[in-house]
């Protein structure tokens, strides 16, 4: 810790006195960005003991933050069938790269990978792709 221009610093962060902490938390929280974003914003320039806890308490009291909180439930992972021979279980996906569409296939047994470019003007919706080329 050091003193510079009348301010107490911890590294490059200003140490905030108790009397000003509630005002500072309100200023940090003004954008209603949730706990993590508020804590990240605070970590850049200010410090006091238990600052993260104080921010969490403030955000939990905010109706706007609670309403806009991530409401999507995480999907539970389901194990796939374990392959006992090649090409018994195949994973597929499509992706775009550099303006082109591609089909990705993977054999779960050998981990053999095939990536095939899909000809322009065709989409994966109703198109059979010839992988023997």
Oligomer: single chain
The rounded Rg comes to 27 Å
Helical fraction equals 25-40%
Count, helices: 4
Approximate strand percentage: 25-35%
Question: Low-confidence runs (pLDDT<50, min 5 residues)?
Answer: none
Count of separate structural domains: 2
The count of DSSP E runs of length 2 or more, i.e. the number of strands, is 7
Strand order in the sheet with the most strands: 1-2-3-4
- The overall pLDDT average reads 84
Question: Main sheet, how many strands, which sense, barrel?
Answer: 4 strands, mixed
Class by SSE composition: alpha+beta
End-to-end CA span:
68 Å
- What CATH architecture of the largest domain do you see? Orthogonal Bundle
């Amino acid at each position: 810790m050091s003193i510079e221009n009348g301010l107490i610093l911890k590294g490059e962060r200003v140490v905030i006195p108790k009397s000003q902490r509630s005002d500072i938390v309100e200023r940090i929280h003004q954008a209603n960005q949730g706990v993590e974003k508020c804590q990240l914003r605070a970590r850049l320039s200010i410090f006091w003991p238990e600052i993260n806890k104080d921010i969490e308490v403030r955000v939990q009291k905010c109706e706007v933050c609670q309403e806009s909180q991530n409401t999507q439930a995480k999907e539970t992972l389901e194990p796939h069938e374990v392959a006992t021979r090649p090409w018994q279980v195949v994973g597929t996906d499509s992706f775009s790269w550099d303006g082109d569409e591609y089909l990705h296939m993977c054999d779960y047994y050998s981990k053999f990978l095939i990536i095939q470019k899909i000809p322009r003007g065709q989409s994966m919706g109703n198109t059979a792709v010839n992988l023997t080329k």
